[in-house]
Write a structure and sequence with these properties.
heterodimer; A: alpha/beta; Rossmann fold; 5-stranded mixed sheet; 34% helix; 19% strand; globular; B: alpha/beta; 5-stranded parallel sheet
């Protein structure tokens, strides 16, 4: 299925400031890159370093991918290793599983999570279950990349945040890079993982730019990351909401003297309880921010774990800031109203701290 | 003869594969003309086809010409409005006017159409005001027309889904005992979707009165039709057990004749038909796309010579059925339409943010009411009631 509106050639969004980058004030000699370029470098490194790696999906060849991530790779690695596919999601995900079973290391790009629903049977009933159901004989070392999220006026059928659904499934690992470093360095460990990995790229981040930490290496896929230290409240989030949570934290600091700690989950399955709970035990307050819907969502899982494991450390009930439980609107001002925003996150944090005026 | 028999043996086994000018440098012979039903040549010469005849009056031809010109004009205005920030997105039909007006006019009033998001010309034929289409792309309404009144379904964004809806709808029609037919629009890219292939299976097995109308505009965003099929798309029908026809999609008369035949075939209880209208997307996939990245301008130039409007104009003028006064009057009317569309779009009121909570459930829902109340209280906490 093709996106009716891949936001590919539109004007670049204003550069996001430090979407969770540690060391934003580092010297200027660090190379400046974008989230899109960081992902591409990860792909290039993988293709160059391992003959078994290939990329396939819709428009990934000459077009460079609906979001421009694979631009230039077909020229560099040829159409055998960067393959345009027919518009058949179930087919190219299923064929990716087959190639993985045969010893390849496929990277399959589904244009967006919305279209991945057509391949859900291949992911849930096949990729995730084959190892167990074959008594350990059939490993599926497949990496599925897809764009997720709203915020670009693409309307309800192109704006889902369904990574919480995927995080529900045993047998797969689910990643959500939110920073340049994670975008650059998550693919290598994902390919090294013997299990299927689903990697969610948030559509609003592709143009995010900044210096890439030169010393960053492969991401530890079992760990969440503290992106901002704080003492008064913990904001737990991931992906496209990280920048908004950090913005909220800066506002809280400047306007209210509240210091928020911001935890980036970055691996949605398995969740790193230790980092989340460690932070909550320090701050005694938690706000979970998730662009996905609240009911039965990833935010519910995080809130439940905090309640289960850190209940007596809490000084306030856990709060959630989530996408409104409606189909994501198309009109700009309606879409903004339906998504978590920095102001709303800050308001929830103030409530948690007991300074809601 | 380009109708595949259900036995699945094409009358001509060779000569229908079309070779594409590769998008890389390299000299390749021009592609052979595909075998396809044509009643009006690119030069505007009326020709006959052994299987598809068409009787038209000069008045009807002038009306068709008017449709083509007006549809192209408001489509162009919509593209301009998007570029000026008045629409979030637009999917232009440029180049596909004949496929849409021809098939649109082939329908009886009771026939029901399931469009993709590009069937502005079919919408026009079904009496949908262009402003309704533009309101949707501006984000101020969700269609704005009554599908049951217009017999024109709301636009479908998800690729190929509507072919299944059309099949189910057609099966319903047979239950009603009506002799209406259904037409499902889709594209060459969609022909690879599981949904579309399952719709073919279903429609065939249940003998549903549905015409699958594929506008093969040669490109699915950046992927040429060769990435979707190794056989001409119309020939796929035979494997599912129903006829397939390839028609010159830039020939409005051939599209009219073939679609009329197909709809009558379906409504008469003979089951589905696949029509492949062989055409070309002259513009971008949508306003988010830049086709110069993946296709050669010489291909575009070759298709310009097959323009659907120019050939009808040439025919009308040659036959003496259209004088300059007529052509000028259509031109003036199209400018009027463009002005109306432009002014109408710019004065559409924005919906209020609380509109996001409408129609989530048919009869409302406690959770939605709770979130609406929270949102309104939150908005009220800002000066002037506007969230910042």
């Amino acid at each position: 299925m093709t996106a009716a509106a891949p936001d590919r050639t539109g004007p670049p969004a204003p550069a996001r400031t430090a979407a969770g980058r540690p060391g934003a004030g580092r010297p200027a000699e660090a190379p400046v890159t974008t989230y899109r370029e960081a992902l591409r470098e990860g792909l290039r490194e993988a293709l160059a370093g391992d003959e078994r790696v290939f990329l396939m999906g819709e428009d990934v060849g000459l077009y460079g991918g609906a979001f421009g991530v694979s631009l230039g790779l077909v020229e560099e690695f040829g159409p055998e290793r960067v393959r345009d596919t027919p518009l058949s999601e179930s087919a190219f995900v299923g064929a990716g599983i087959g190639a993985a079973l045969a010893g390849m290391r496929p990277v399959v790009e589904v244009m967006t999570v919305n279209f991945s629903l057509l391949a859900l049977d291949q992911v849930v009933n096949n990729a995730a279950a084959l190892l167990h159901m074959s008594g350990g004989q059939l490993a599926v070392p497949l990496v599925l990349r897809m764009t997720t999220g709203a915020g670009r006026q693409l309307a309800a059928q192109h704006s889902h945040s369904l990574e919480g659904w995927y995080a529900h499934i045993p047998g797969i690992r689910v990643l959500a890079p939110a920073t340049l470093e994670d975008a650059r360095h998550m693919l290598a460990p994902a390919l090294a993982d013997p299990d299927p990995v689903v990697l969610f790229e948030h559509g609003s981040l592709y143009n995010a730019s900044g210096p890439l930490a030169p010393d960053a290496g492969p991401v530890d896929l079992d760990s969440a990351a503290v992106r901002r230290a704080g003492t008064d409240v913990t904001l737990v989030t991931y992906g496209g909401s990280l920048g908004k949570a950090l913005e909220a934290a800066e506002r809280l600091s400047a306007d209210d003297g509240i210091e928020a700690e911001v935890v980036d989950l970055r691996t949605l399955r398995p969740l790193d309880d230790a980092t989340v709970l460690g932070s909550v035990r320090r701050t005694h307050r938690a706000v979970v921010v998730d662009e996905g819907w609240r009911t039965g969502g990833l935010s519910a899982e995080v809130a439940a774990r905090i309640a289960e494991q850190a209940f007596y450390d809490l000084d306030a009930r856990v709060r959630r800031v989530c996408g409104a439980e409606v189909p994501v609107p198309y009109a700009r001002q309606l879409e903004e109203a339906a998504l978590p925003q920095a102001a709303g996150i800050a308001a929830a944090a103030r409530e948690a701290v007991g300074r809601d005026g | 003869m380009t109708v595949d028999s259900t036995a699945g043996v094409p009358k001509k086994a060779s000569g229908t594969r079309r070779k594409r000018v590769p998008s890389r440098a390299g000299s390749v012979a021009p592609p052979p003309q595909p075998e396809l039903v044509q009643l009006l040549t690119p030069e505007g010469e009326r020709v006959e086809h052994p299987d598809f005849s068409l009787e038209t009056t000069p008045e009807e031809l002038r009306a068709i010409y008017r449709d083509l010109v007006l549809v192209r004009r408001f489509d162009g205005e919509a593209t301009a409005l998007q570029r000026q920030g008045e629409l979030g997105l637009w999917a232009s039909l440029l180049g596909q006017e004949a496929a849409q007006v021809g098939s649109g006019r082939a329908m009886r009033p009771g026939d029901y159409a399931f469009p993709t998001y590009r069937e502005h010309g079919v919408a026009w034929c079904k009496g949908v005001d262009p402003l309704n289409l533009l309101g949707m792309f501006r984000g101020v309404n969700h269609g704005g027309w009554d599908p049951n009144e217009k017999n024109f379904h709301l636009y479908t964004i998800v690729i190929g889904s509507q072919t299944l809806h059309a099949t189910g709808y057609a099966m319903g029609i047979t239950k009603d005992g009506a002799d209406d037919a259904v037409i499902a629009y889709f594209g060459d890219g969609a022909s690879s979707q599981g949904d579309v292939n399952e719709a073919f299976t279903f429609a065939s097995v249940y003998n549903a009165p549905v015409v699958f109308f594929c506008q093969n505009n040669q490109w699915a965003i950046s992927e040429p039709t060769e990435k979707q099929s190794r056989v001409p798309i119309y020939r796929r029908a035979s494997g599912f057990g129903f006829p397939g026809v390839r028609v010159d999609g830039n020939d409005v008369l051939a599209c009219l004749a073939v679609t009329r035949w197909a709809l009558d075939h379906a409504r008469s209880g003979n089951g589905p038909v696949l029509v492949e209208a062989f055409t070309y997307r002259m513009g971008a996939h949508t306003t988010s796309d830049d086709p110069s990245r993946y296709r050669m301008s010489e291909e575009l130039e070759a298709w310009k010579l097959k323009d659907p409007i120019e050939r009808l104009r040439a025919h009308l003028v040659r036959e003496g059925w259209a004088d300059q006064e007529f052509l000028d009057s259509v031109e003036a009317e199209s400018e009027q339409l463009a002005r109306r569309v432009r002014e109408g779009v710019r004065t559409m009121p924005d919906p209020s943010p609380a509109a996001i909570f409408e129609h989530v459930y048919a009869d409302g829902h406690a959770l939605v009411d709770e979130e609406r109340a929270q949102y309104e209280a939150y908005a009220a906490s800002f000066e002037g009631g506007e969230v910042r």
